[in-house]
Amino acid sequence: MVKLLNLRNLVDQWFDNIEVRDRKIAKLLCQSIPASCPFERDIKLFGRTLFHIPPLCKLNPFYEQLVSLRFKALSYLTNESDKDKALYCY
Q1: Other C-beta atoms within 10 Å of 66: how many?
Q2: Which residues are bridge partners to 49 per DSSP?
Q3: Closest of 65, 74, 73 to residue 8, by C-alpha
Q4: Which of 4, 44, 53, 69 suits 60 as a labelling partner, its CA being 20 to 30 A distant?
Q5: Angle of CA points 28, 16, 81, to nearest 5°
Q6: pLDDT value of residue 90
Q7: Binning pLDDT at 50, 70 and 90, where does residue 18 land?
Q8: Of the candidates 57, 51, 62, 66, which has an alpha carbon nearest to the alpha carbon of residue 39?
């Protein structure tokens, strides 16, 4: 169990130390990492909600690091580019 926690800490540190320095990579990161959890859904039948599937992304142990990486990429594009950043937000 301790080795698993150490591995997770190493991966967390690796994600945190990634710096976005290339426009193409920043664009790829923004387009491939979703802005919101893609698994949240309302299941409807004939206009009535049968049940709601909650966002399961928070169960992913690396969710916060991925969101942080997407934010770094958006920040890079904002600081380095004159183009509209709304293209990368969805």
Answers
A1: 16
A2: 44
A3: 65
A4: 44
A5: 40
A6: 52
A7: confident
A8: 57
Residue length of the chain: 90
Answer whether residue 88 shows pLDDT above 60.
no
Cβ atoms within 10 Å, residue 69: 19
**CA geometry: angle at 82 spanning 79 and 88, to 5°?**
80
Q: Is the dihedral of CA 12, 20, 28, 22 positive or negative?
A: negative
* Whether the predicted pLDDT of 1 surpasses 70: no
Catalogue the long-range contacts made by 83-89 (C-beta closer than 8 Å, 24 or more residues apart). Answer: 88/27, 88/30, 88/31, 89/30, 89/35
Assigned token pair, 49: 């909600």
> Using 50, 70 and 90 to split pLDDT, how confident is the model at 5?
low
